[in-house]
Amino acid sequence: MSKEIIVSSNPGEIWVSIMENGAPYEIFVERGESYSILGNIYKGVVSKVLPGMQSAFINIGLDRDAFLYVEDLDENIEDYEKILGFSEEFDEGISESEVPVQRRMKPNIDDFLKEGQEIIVQVTKEPLPRKGARITSYITLPGRYLVYMPSVEHIGVSRKIEDLAERIRVREIALNLKPERGGFIVRTVAGGVGEKELRDDAEYLVRIWKEILKKSETVTAPSIIHKEKNIVLKVIRDYFNSEFTRILVDSEEKYREIVDFIHKIDPLLAVRVKLHEKKVQLMEEFGLNKEVEKALKSRIWLKSGGYIVINQTEALVAIDVNTGKYTGEKRLEDTVLKTNLEAVREIVRQIRLRDLGGIIIIDFIDMEELQNRERVFSELESELKKDRAKTKLLKISDFGLVELTRKRTKQSLDRILSTSCPYCEGSGRVKSSATVSFEIMREIKKFAETLEGNTIIIRAHPDVASYLDELKKEVLEFEMKKRNVSVIIRSDGNLHMEQFDIMTI
Question: What is the pTM of this model?
Fold first, then answer.
């Protein structure tokens, strides 16, 4: 499988795309007005404690207060030291909110936090339009090969390092590197890496943490005390390895920044960074513009002629599979199976591309044969393993429904690139021309007695005006003649479907 990273830079905007076999599977966008704060560390102030929700609002200097759950409290607050430990296996790219922590007791948040108290926290989930950022006081500092956890006395190894001997080797090195306080997670890319590289990474992360603590003593809350790397360097640090054939960049400035960064983390891979010097734009050459357009639409066509429909709501994401134009050859069951299997690959790609999260329900086309349902489920399970995000999958039901949850820490592509329609307010629907026409009728009738002897001019959207013309012949003219009122209907393409004006002359 061919893998590469595309970096397209414009004034005030950066796009980073993870490509697999020429198709984008993950896209990261950073704009001047929407700089990612994921991973940033702040010195905050407790603004409100909610015992009934076992949570608190923390002022970290953003427009909205951040949200802290009791389970995301660090054991250093007060005398709380109840952590038992962790499972030895970790997912690659584990975030602090995903660390499986066990405690002897469930604490009450108001035992440890009081209004006005200062606290060091890290952002684990980006703020949404109606929600503040999700934060934790379990700080994690990701490096190239290790993740340093200052408040956790544990050494973990990524489960994606499958070779037992290698797992034991890197764990022993990490144990020897463990500082007096804190622990490490060994990341997947550390497999096969020498002790010196791991030591350099460990020393760098511990040094960063000491600088954060030192800064926290000198700044006034709320203040930022550590900013995560920009989106380009973050993606390269977390994704780029020997499996990628190249990084293609269209900006000389970004090209130099990336090369310098890779020379520090993995010098042998620096030669794979290439500067795009063609006249055709990078995003256009790889068809990213078209892929993004598709990712903003609900219907995605499959090569066979079938299609999937993706509907994103506040509560969940619903994905429906349909045969569409695909009629198959002989058996209906074979047609359905082929469509479902093709849909699986595109569904997982769209989930990753759009960065969909929360509860996701997939409605596959009903399959009669059990082995076919199992085959589709197995294919889905296999494709989801390629996703770095944490997912949990439930078995396919007799109705062809599959439920899964997916951990997401940033806003979906749809939320980044689009906004709710100001007309339909996000419902995706507008009033019909008939509905608007009868609204106009009711409005005229309301003031009919004061209109006698006048001429009414109705200005409306062309579709509404056309409907009103028919209505005028059947109903409107008859009603108005009784009151000696003339009606003139004017079409105006500049008006929204639901807008109209009624004037008298």
Answer: 0.74
